[in-house]
Amino acid sequence: MSVTIRDVSEKACVSPATVSLVLNGRSGISESTRLRVLKTAEEMGYTTPSRKVQKKSGKIIRFLKIARHGHIINRNHNVFIADYIDGLEKEARSYGFGLEVRNYKGFDSKTILDELSNSPPSGIVVLATELRESDIRVFQKITIPMVFMDASHPSSSFDFVDMDNAGAVYSIISAFKERGHTRIGLVKANVETRNFYLRKKNYYHAMDYFGLPTDKKWIYTVDSTYGNAYLDMKKQLDENRKLPTALFCVCDMIAYGSMKALKEKGLHIPGDLSLIGFDDLPPSQMTEPPLASVKVSKSRIGRRAFQLLKRRMETEKHLPYEKIFIGGELMIRQSLGEAPN
């Protein structure tokens, strides 16, 4: 198998974005890090496919990693972002395209659009996790073929590849119900991305579909970072509301923080209360107890994004937009148990 950006990043102990910046000669990287990455890439035999051909033809795909507020696009989620990049890069390389990654803190549309105009790539894949619908409309000014990943907006006539949030949430509520849970609560984020919004929305739809009651006392709102999720949940648990027997957390980081607060309150998981998260980050297998969570193939989403992009790069004809949803799998672990008697 060929060596990928992610392989180099893991060996050099840096992010895939850093590797991309170094290999593409971008600034903003310390000299020691640059040398370490270059040495690692050389030792591992990393090669960008057909560099001479790329230089002449401009066969470069640019991945825009935009952290609008940083509640999701941060180091805690580097693993799933690396999976997106890994899938995108492997598919692009198989067709002779190189991949470069650009990082943006905040959404400065002028800077982003100016860079795209001054050094246009063959195609663009935008990580739209933290972008608003109004942010995405800004890209209508760009004529370069592009695809948006990890989001989907019904009013935007762009190509999107996203996870099937609705189907995943229905599988979560079904799993709770099968184990006798009828009082199922929700831990949502205080800063909502499009995916968080859809998970919250479909929680209510699924509860109604399965004939289960909802109660505002079973709804908790926390920050989506581990430390603040813990503090926010701890504060709400001190209100001593009557707890449900199960909680669906809209992401794993929220689940980790909530789990810590619940255990400090003296609650046993899953004996007193069951938990399910979303994203299946690697720590989910190592929490105590291991966290049940929804796994979605981020690498597959990355590959599909390139396939859509390739379709647009190969023709100048008008093509209808496509919105593709990749299904997930509920990973059953010990945080999911039978409802207490």
Write up what this structure looks like.
- With about 350 residues, the chain is α/β, with parallel strands linked by helices.
- The protein has helices at about 5-10, 15-25, 30-45, 50-55, 80-95, 110-120, 135, 165-180, 195-210, 225-235, 250-265, 300-315, and strands spanning about 60-65, 100-105, 125, 145-150, 160-165, 185-190, 220, 245-250, 275-280, 290-295, 325, 330.
- The chain folds into two domains: about 5-165 and about 295-325, 3-Layer(aba) Sandwich (Rossmann fold), CATH 3.40.50.2300; about 165-295, Rossmann fold (3-Layer(aba) Sandwich), CATH 3.40.50.2300.
- The strands form two sheets. It has a six-stranded parallel sheet. A six-stranded mixed sheet has the order 7-6-8-9-10-12, with helices on both faces.
- The relative contact order is 0.13.
Task: Please supply descriptive tags for the structure shown above.
single chain, 341 residues, alpha/beta, Rossmann fold, 2 domains, 6-stranded parallel sheet, globular
Proportion of helical residues: 40-55%
User: How are strands sequenced across the largest beta sheet?
Assistant: 2-1-3-4-5-11
Query: What name does the CATH topology of the largest domain carry?
Result: Rossmann fold
Shape: globular
CATH architecture of the largest domain: 3-Layer(aba) Sandwich
Strand content: 15-25%
End-to-end span in angstroms?
A: 52 Å
* The named CATH superfamily of the largest domain: Response regulator
What structural category arises from helix and sheet content? alpha/beta
Radius of gyration: 21 Å
Summed up, the domain count is 2
Count the E strands.
Answer: 12
How would you name the oligomeric state of the polypeptide chains in this document? Answer: single chain
- What is the CATH C-level name of the largest domain? Alpha Beta
Major beta sheet, specifics?
6 strands, parallel
